[in-house]
What we know:
mainly alpha
Amino acid sequence: xxxxxxxxxxxxxxxxxxxxxxxxxxxxxxxxxxxxxxxxxxxxxxxxxxxxxxxxxxxxxxxxxxxxxxxxxxxxxxxxxxxxxxxxxxxxxxxxxxxxxxxxxxxxxxxxxxxxxxxxxxxxxxxxxxxxxxxxxxxxxxxxxxx
Length: 147
């Protein structure tokens, strides 16, 4: 087989795997209910997507340093959140910035993600729910809520 067609085939294959790794924001919107029991999406004083307050506000999460969200709007009252584990705060201090890719990876297995990121088998985040399907789509949906 000539080298040029092989290189073309390998390049095309790599592009197709990159495309398939990207999520679909419309599908993510439909799947977000899996997240809303713990997470709301709030921009300033406006609740964009209702949800719980046990997990951090997910508005602007893409590009945010892990473990740094500080409060929630609950009605007209701002509530502090202190629900990050020391390990999630440490991950942020060690450079973890949320991207669509690592949000998807984290959502699939939060405990393993933090253990691997920190190279610490005792590390734990608060989130233990694992999204076996749709994590890329939810991450793409979250990326639509930016500052």
